[in-house]
Amino acid sequence: MPKRLSLLPLLALCGLLGTALPARAQALIPYVLPLDYDLMTEQGLFLANEAQQLAEFQQFGRALALAQLAAQLAPNDGQVLALLGGLYLQSNAVDKALPLLGRARSLMPDNPRVLFALGSAQLQQDNPSLASSYLEQGLRLEPDNPNALFDLGNAYFKLGKYAEAIARYEQSVAAEPNFWPSVNNIGLVLYEQGDAAGAIGYWRASLELAANEPEPKLAIAVALHTQENCAVPLVRATTAACQEALSLGVEALEQDSRYADIDFLRINLWGDRLIDSTNTFFAVPDIKTLIGEL
Question: Cα(244)–Cα(172) distance, rounded to whole angstroms?
Fold first, then answer.
């Protein structure tokens, strides 16, 4: 509500509401206190810290609301802008994230986390060349960041640089041995190179690290189904590997129905060879019926 409206109760109390005011009184402007920008920035940083803690506990909605307010109070603080940009990125609002991250980079050009976030954003925009540039710059400043190495591996994979992709995934695992996504994605690269047995080995290894993840389960199922020629009904009925493929596939799809969507698989970097095998697997009567019920 505008401040001038708050004068009305006072005028009424004084008995002046129905009385004509002098012309100059109508032009009076309420005194506006000057803003304390230092205090605003301090409050913004406090809110940003609260938002970061909420984000660490996966409370992204509340974290985003606080970070938005923090950015209003501290619009020239690179860390606050980077935090808000990162939360938008987490929410898949890449168009909102990129300008904020760009401003954060101009304020903190040597901050590796900002460069990593820009790289991740460009990956979401399907611009792997620019993504790899940002990630490489950031990794020169912080070379052992497993998430950034994973993203760089993904960028190289999208660019068809398979050897470089595997090397970055391996570096990611060296930096954090339990980082199962990198182990999983080595399998994706190997399958596209025609090494199904090697891919299955990495997917089994990723399951040892993350037993409840549906992606390696489905990948193993698809690869086994293709490798064992399970499309032939007699083979499918009698081979233990084919039975394992069916069991793992059902388990993965029931656990997360998004993996029944080919577009979702492509977003997760399933390549053409693996997608072709997946389409064949999804045509298996039991799997086709299950997908229809999801």
Answer: 30
Report the distance separating Cα 289 and Cα 294, nearest Å: 9
Q: What is the DSSP letter of 28?
A: -
Single pTM value for the model: 0.83
Q: What is the pLDDT of residues 179-218, one digit of tens each?
A: 999 999 999 999 999 999 999 999 999 999 999 999 999 9
With contact defined as beta carbons under 8 Å apart, do 82 and 101 qualify? yes
Q: What is the dihedral of CA 77, 78, 83, 85, to 10 degrees?
A: 110
Contacts of 271 (CB under 8 A, 6+ apart): 188, 191, 192
Domains of the chain: 184-294 (1.25.40.10)
> CB burial class (10 A; 0-12, 13-18, 19+) of residue 50?
middle
Cα–Cα distance between 41 and 72 in angstroms, integer? 9
SS3 content of the chain, % helix, strand, coil (to 5): 75, 0, 25
- Give the integer Cα–Cα distance in Å for 148 and 142: 9
